[in-house]
Amino acid sequence: MSRVLADRPILRRNLTTVCLMTATIMQALDSTIANVALPYMQGSFSSSYDQVAWVLTSYIVASAIATAPIGWISERYGRKKLFMACAAGFTFASVLCGLAQTLEQMVLFRVLQGVFGAGLVPLSQAAMLDAYPVHQRGQAMAIWGMGVMLGPIMGPTLGGWLTENYTWHWVFLINLPFGIITVIGLYLLMDETKPSDGMRFDWFGFIALSVGIGSLQLMLDRGESVSWFESPEIIAEAAVAAAGFYYFLSHSLTIKEPFNRFELFRNRDFVTGCFFMVMIGLVLFSTMALITPFLQHVMGYPIIDTGNMIAARGAGTFLAMMVAGRLMQFIEARYLLFIGFSLNAISLWAMSGFTEQTTGFSVFTTGMLGGFGLGTVFIPLNAVSFLTLPGHLRTAGTTVITLVRNVSSSIGISLAIASLTSTTTLMRARLAENVTPFNDALQMPSAAQLNAGTDQSNAMLDAMLNQQATVMAFDNVFYLLMWVCIIAMPFIAFVGSSRLAMKKSGPQQHAAAMD
User: Fold this and answer.
1) pLDDT-derived band at 244, boundaries 50, 70, 90
2) pTM for this structure?
């Protein structure tokens, strides 16, 4: 089989792409697929919500820490070996999660899943960039981006369907057949990179960065439930995170071989890509995190219908990725970025007017527009970030940009939820100020049942205040996110010419990458 594939490089590349995409989708799905199964796990493990939430937190923290050394390990031992180890370990850990009998076992197995899953996305992106010539990298990133972006969007839908029709165990066990196919495919199809035997691991830098990232992730994940900086826990985690990042930077800038390749940040395209990846994390992932509770708690959609509504955003992203990859051959990447951010700003402006009376059609079309904007941003951004980056820095670059995306999305989601909570409280207080005998609206015949003075009428009035305050808070956060999109758009001017970079690179770069 290997000999036949060697004689047919296009077929081999396509089959390799399928294996890379399977690995990417598995990891991307597991970042959100377990969310909807938490209530069922809580019952199975007889635990509180705070306790079962560690099923999510443990995975996030472990994945964030384990992402950092992926570039170094890949360069030192070879990308293929590391990729196969990550895929096999992730599959095995998924089976263990599906068979867990106690909460302690589940948290331990989720840590293992996060550690092994951390390398799947950056390694698959680096392999895709190496497998395609420069002029086809827009299409390659479109294919790869479908897995990265559609995974988190479709995760709650698939997780809800599996949990409702089977059990929560299948949320994890579904990875087994795909994991086996991925490992076998990688073994047969993927080329190994040349290991670098002389590299030394910077343990101090790794430990300092791990402490900083882990503490930051814990602070972001726990902040909302313990009232943020009113809690000694959050203050301590913030102090530890600041110390970890300080020692990492001061150490890395004063040694000959730092843990991270700082020469990455001499490349303008890569730095610009990191900046806009922060914007994607802060704005776009926050939007996806907010729309689910809005549909369920404000508009009253059940979990399956909520998943179908969110699928519209996924459909828009999928369509944009199919188009954007091809358009990059004819249109500058910065123009596509401008279009994508504009569409997201328009979508968020429309969402800032959502109420409990908004029609499902409006939610569907707005979600599709926002999803299309997301796909239009994501594809050219990932392509242009690596257009002028030397090949030997590619794996390190994909590792850094994955880490930037994950950390910024955690920050964005935490800030959005914190803003939602505080704004809800503020809006309810302002609305309650108008509940007085002097308010003419409350004296109208239609409001007579609210003025009865009974426990039932008081409960109805309280429910109305809570609902209206919640709607206003969601709208306010969507409006703020719209302005973040608008503020980010002028910085698109710093994006270099993608078409000029393609012409300069030519087919020689692709040939060198394949050798």
Assistant:
1) very high
2) 0.77
Residues in the chain: 515
Asked if residue 29 is part of any domain, the answer here is yes
Could you count the other beta carbons within 10 Å of the beta carbon of residue 227? Answer: 10
Mean pLDDT of 392-410: 82
CATH number at residue 493: 1.20.1250.20
> Based on the domain organization, do 249 and 370 belong to the same domain?
no
Q: What is the pLDDT at residue 437? A: 60
| Residue 515: pLDDT over 60 | no
Share above pLDDT 90 across residues of the chain, in percent, rounded to a whole number? 20
The pLDDT-based confidence of 298 (bands split at 50, 70, 90) is confident
Sign of CA dihedral 451, 453, 454, 456: positive
- C-alpha span between 209 and 251 (Å, rounded): 10
Cβ neighbours of residue 505 closer than 8 Å, sequence gap 6 or more: 134, 387, 388
User: Does one domain contain both 55 and 88?
Assistant: yes
Give the distance between the most distant pair of CA atoms in the chain.
86
> Cβ–Cβ contacts within 10 Å for residue 466, how many?
14
Would 366 be classed as within a structural domain? yes
CA distance 91 to 172: 9
Distance CA(219)–CA(238), nearest Å, equals 7
Distance CA 465, CA 459 (A): 10
231 and 323 housed in the same domain: no
Indicate whether 110 and 146 sit together in one domain. Answer: yes
The domain boundary, picked from 175, 199, 223, lies at: 199
Of 86 and 309, which is predicted with more confidence? 86
Q: Whole-angstrom Cα distance, residue 383 to residue 374?
A: 14
Q: Are residues 195 and 206 in the same domain?
A: no
Higher pLDDT, 498 or 89: 89
Do 283 and 335 form a contact (C-beta atoms < 8 A)?
Answer: no
User: In degrees to the nearest 10, what's the CA dihedral of 127, 128, 129, 135?
Assistant: 150
* Mean pLDDT computed over every residue of the chain: 81
Task: Give the DSSP letter string of 426-466.
Answer: HHHHHHHTT-STT-GGGGSGGGGGGSS-SHHHHHHHHHHHH
What is the rounded distance in angstroms from the CA atom of residue 196 to the CA atom of residue 76?
Answer: 5
- 66 pLDDT more than 90: no
Q: Please, what's the b/e burial string for 128-158 (b: 16 or more CB within 10 A of its CB; e: otherwise)?
A: bbbbbbbbbbbbbbbbbbbbbbbbbbbbbbb
| Count of structural domains within the chain | 3
Shared-domain flag, residues 246 and 283: no
Range of 208's domain? Answer: 202-258
In a domain, 63, yes or no: yes
Indicate whether 150 pLDDT > 70.
no
